[in-house]
Amino acid sequence: MGNEMKKPLDKFYLLNTSEADEARAIVSRVFCDHTLVPEKAGAIKALHNRAQLSQISLNYMEYGADVTVEPGCLKDFFLFQLPMEGAAEICTHNDSFTTSKGISSAINPSEYTKMHWNKDCKKLMVQVKREAMEERLSRILMRPIEKPILFHHQVKETQNPHAGTWWRQVWNLVHEIDEGHDPWRSHFLLEDLERNLLTSLLFSFNHNYLDLLKAQDSTAAPRHVKQVEDYIQAHLKDNITIDDLVEISGVSSRSIFNGFKSFRGTTPMKYILQARLEKVREELMLPSQDKSVTDIATKWNFTQLGRFSATYKKVYGESPSDTLRG
Question: Is residue 96 a contact partner of residue 133, using CB atoms and an 8 Å limit?
Answer without folding.
Answer: no
